[in-house]
């Protein structure tokens, strides 16, 4: 079976059950399945003999995305959804490249990474991988058929796209919003008549919710079954506050990527709220720590490779193992603990510093509302640490911030330079845009 077959199965067993809410309208499983069938028949008739099975399209945040996405699968074609705001020249560049690519049998998707640390890459995902990810999430986070899962992120990205998998496999219900710019859409979805709701939120969205809407979020404490976060490290202070606001909810921090799939997850609302802990590997996954201390992954959730780039594929995928650039360890409880990305580590004065460690301490200070650490160049000392930060104080007392950091960090981890800014730049899916700040390393203001 492929995931589209599960939709048809539920359409036959529970035809009137709501599959998706979006834009004030609802679509039943039967309606969704019928629309997928109609679209699939059209695709089969018009692309039956095509030599180019990959279909590139801009992802939308609605039921029509589900129809197009699953119709392509049902027709035996490959879906390549791009961000809805993808410029025309980028769209045509990707479309042209993929038109000459061959893909392995069983390929379902080509998903483009956000490209925060380099050029965006087309990751090939198989139908087998989709089902393995679904089963990992069902087992690891307790998805059930009576759940309403709220999608807030872009459906071309694995963070939100992967949540379609367990929901539709089980015959549960989706609510798709246009993102977190209008937070009222999230709360409107939570008001739908379901006893249990869940969602996936990137750390920056959680921070916004806690800063501006913590009291309102707390009103749903008995209804929120779980919240998952990922895609970027979540600050310790945000984890602790979310546990206080939602004391009864499961709050998951997950290790996942487009290349690896869903690997492990940890409910940090366990009374310990462990920073950097990402839980035990799920049933379809295995984690190995290399001699260098980097995380490698095995199992059915891995990508098939990068579309049209065999050399790049071989650089990270060898003998059924994905070799990542993430530093980590397996602790005494068998849980993965993440230290940071190899490319993000700042080498200063002979020491290696994970910027997330400094950022976590800085974010615990009342003056700091958001921040990012980056390398900077000192004319005598060489590479030093620079803290870009956001504060409500104008101007902020930099000496006071530095003094507090010195009391809580080893000397070599304390930033040398500080720069107050209006905002911290992030990618469209909430990741800190570290590439931007690395490119600013000669700015020592």
What's the short version?
This protein is an alpha/beta fold and 445 residues long.
Q: How does the SSE layout of this entry go?
A:
Elements (H helix, E strand, L loop, with lengths): L2 H11 L4 E5 L2 E4 H19 L6 E5 L4 H12 L3 E5 L5 H12 L7 E6 L9 E5 H15 L5 E5 L6 H13 L2 E4 L7 H7 L5 E5 L2 H16 L5 E6 L6 H10 L4 E8 L3 E7 L9 E5 L3 E5 L4 E6 L5 E2 L3 H7 E2 L2 E10 L5 E6 L4 E3 L2 E3 L1 H9 L6 E9 L3 E9 L7 H9 L10 E4 L13 H5 L7
Parallel strand pairs: 1-8, 3-4, 7-8, 7-9, 9-10, 10-11, 23-24
Antiparallel strand pairs: 1-2, 5-6, 6-16, 11-12, 12-13, 13-19, 14-15, 15-18, 17-18, 18-19, 20-21, 22-23
What does this structure look like?
33% of the residues lie in helices and 29% in strands. With 445 residues, it is an alpha/beta fold. The strands form five sheets. Strands 1, 2, 7, 8, 9, 10, 11, 12, 13, 14, 15, 17, 18 and 19 form a 14-stranded mixed sheet that branches. The chain has a three-stranded antiparallel sheet with strand order 5-6-16. The mean pLDDT is 93. Strand 11 (250-257) and strand 12 form a beta hairpin. The chain is globular, with a radius of gyration of 22 Å. It has helices at 3-13, 29-47, 63-74, 88-99, 127-141, 158-170, 184-190, 203-218, 236-245, 310-316, 355-363, 398-406, 434-438, and strands at residues 18-22, 25-28, 54-58, 78-82, 107-112, 122-126, 147-151, 173-176, 196-200, 224-229, 250-257, 261-267, 277-281, 285-289, 294-299, 305-306, 317-318, 321-330, 336-341, 346-348, 351-353, 370-378, 382-390, 417-420. The chain is built from 13 helices and 24 strands. It folds into two domains: 3-341, 3-Layer(aba) Sandwich (Rossmann fold), CATH 3.40.50.12780; 354-439, GMP Synthetase, Chain A, domain 3 (2-Layer Sandwich). The longest helix is centred in the N-terminal third of the chain and has 19 residues, at 29-47.
